[in-house]
Amino acid sequence: MTLLTEERIRYLEETARRIRCHVVRTISEAGVGHPGGSLSEADILTALYFHIMKIDPQRPQWEERDRFVLSKGHGAAGLYATLAERGFFPIDWLKTFGRIDSRLQVHPDMHLVPGVEVSTGALGQGLSVALGMALAARLDGKGIHVYCLIGDGENQEGQIWEAAEAAAHYKVDNLTVILDYNGVQLMGPLREVMEIAPIADKWRSFNWAVAEVNGHDMRQLITTLETIKEVKGQPHIVIAHTVKGKGVSYMEGQSAWHGKAPNQEQLAQALAELGCSQE
Amino acid sequence: MVESAREALGRTLVELARQNPNIVVLDADLASSTRVVYFAQEFPERFFQMGVAEQNMMGVAAGMALMGKIPFVSTFGVFASRRACDQVAISVAHCRLNVKIIGAYSGIVSGNNGATHQAVEDVGIMRAIPHMAVVDPADDIEMEQAVRAIVAYPGPVYLRATRDVWPRVSPEGYQFKLGRAVKVREGSDVTLIGSGMMTSQCVEAAQLLGREGISTRVLHMPTIKPIDIEAVIQAAKETRGIVTAENHNIYGGLGSAVAEVLVEHAPTSMIRVGLCDCYGECGTNAELLHKYGMSPQHIAEAAHYVLEKAARLLRR
Q1: How do the domains of chain B map onto residue ranges?
Q2: Residue whose C-alpha is closest to residue A80's, from A98, A47, A52, A104
Q3: How far does B94 lie from chain A, in Å, by closest CA?
Q4: What whole-number distance in Å separates Cα of residue A83 and Cα of residue A29?
Q5: Which of B48, B55, B56 to mutate to test the interface with A (most CBs of A within 10 A)?
Q6: B91: nearest CB among A129, A135, A170
Q7: CB of B95 less than 8 A from some CB of A
Q8: In chain A, which residue's Cα lies nearest the Cα of B62?
Q9: Where is B275: in which H helix or E strand?
Q10: CA angle, B69 as apex, B64 and B75 as ends, to 5°?
């Protein structure tokens, strides 16, 4: 495992910044997509794909790889940016996002994109799929770890709790869920739309190992993911407190930016704020 | 001895699992009813009790299929098709995953549990889902072969399994092939097309018609999707009318599938026998088939009607 030196942290933070640049460019060019959640999840995806997970971009179908499921499928732009930056496919592909005949659907399709493990988009479903992967890996005695990113609005789906119950019942400890807790969903703040708090207590009462982190603190994210992975006999959830639209001032905390594309002017401001090259 | 379809299903799964270590079974607290309990007894480590939570079960099965397993998901048809519909569509079918969905207690003849447990829309729902194959075996022999065939077939399948014992219709030496209809009785005046246990009702109806001198073909359609287009066209060309008989609402199921083929390829006088857009109720199988117009007598009456209609069209 690579040591978490200051230099390493800086490299990962710089990677996350580049991913955010791809996200705003991709969505702006396409005129469609979900910038708010793609920006809030960027540090989490960076931690997983650039530090934590056992993967090989040259062999996306390598059997022994760790698995990642983007249960909040509308965060696709963030996932594509991460996969492209990690080398699963050319960065150029990002320009096709959401267009006819594109591999990059607005919600990810496993048959079209190297590195996408399963198609998602209907909220609540990915966690069950991740649980099935984890159970099958355990049945085969494989040391595969399964990670699943869920949204906080998604946490309102009943199926999430069916999966939570089953994962704890089967003591699935090769499964780690990360909750992108940015507190804002399409129609507004969760506390107005449908409150999920006290969310840590809820998961704890379902017999999960629970940790809470600042989802934009790279060191905290990584050390927490590495520590909680060692908990045996229980599934794990890391509740990552994040900011919707993180890094772009006018998007931060705004439900209006859940599923809206920035125009040229807004893009220029976003790129400037993120310190992206302006090519 | 003739078994029920579910009994044959439970038994065959165990036999196949002895050779194929990738077969796993997930159950939503109905294993003793669907008979996958035999699998649970012999392969406890490959049996996953998922509790009364069908949506999660469907997704977990998808995840296992992604890891190379061949999951059989056990629940009643009503829950597989309605409760977990979105999971079947997105996690299983859209991903084209190798999940086999058992929809037990199919149709109106579901063990006197009444309307909530009678799957009368399941075929329509599953047929409308892209990539999904839909199989409705008639008897124990066919169920055994169908289970073997769908394990060998790499893709999502919805398999209906009736609860009770129905007369065998599988001919001597019959080999089930996915997507292939089977002629269980030759005839030249009219064709009765049945799926599932309704084919046995068609055979009885054909005997009634035979006594009246009407030469009746019985075509059994165990695979409702993909439907055997050629066999339907052949029946349309070689007989004067077609009656479909299904253990399902007349919308969306076998009758609709046959009508689609006929309209596009060989317009023919036809009529559908099945539930006429209503939910069922409690009662014995015989009482239910009689009350809802699905008995052999009703099928025979429908054959008379379709032949009269064909004759009128001919005179015109």
Answers
A1: 5-161, 182-315
A2: A104
A3: 8
A4: 19
A5: B56
A6: A129
A7: yes
A8: A129
A9: strand B270-275
A10: 70
pLDDT tens-digit map of A86-116? 999 999 999 999 999 999 999 999 999 999 9
* CATH topology assigned to domain B182-315: Rossmann fold (3.40.50)
Domain that residue A31 falls in = 6-274
Domain B5-161 sits in CATH at: 3.40.50.970
Contact (Cβ atoms closer than 8 angstroms) between residue A48 and residue A68:
yes
Q: Alpha-carbon distance A217 to A46, whole Å?
A: 11
Does A118 contact B69 at a Cβ distance shorter than 8 Å? no
Residue-wise pLDDT tens digits, A230-254: 999 999 999 999 999 999 999 999 9
Output the domain CATH number for residue A122: 3.40.50.970
- Compute the distance between CA of residue B151 and CA of residue B165 in angstroms, rounded to an integer: 24
Q: Which residues pair with A147 in a beta bridge?
A: A68, A176
Closest-CA distance, B211 to chain A, in angstroms, reads 56
Nearest to B63 among A119, A128, A159 (CB): A128
pLDDT in tens, chain A (279 residues): 678 999 999 999 999 999 999 999 999 999 999 999 999 999 999 999 999 999 999 999 999 999 999 999 999 999 999 999 999 999 999 999 999 999 999 999 999 999 999 999 999 999 999 999 999 999 999 999 999 999 999 999 999 999 999 999 999 999 999 999 999 999 999 999 999 999 999 999 999 999 999 999 999 999 999 999 999 999 999 999 999 999 999 999 999 999 999 999 999 999 999 999 865
**Do the chains contact at A132 and B60, CB–CB below 8 Å?**
yes
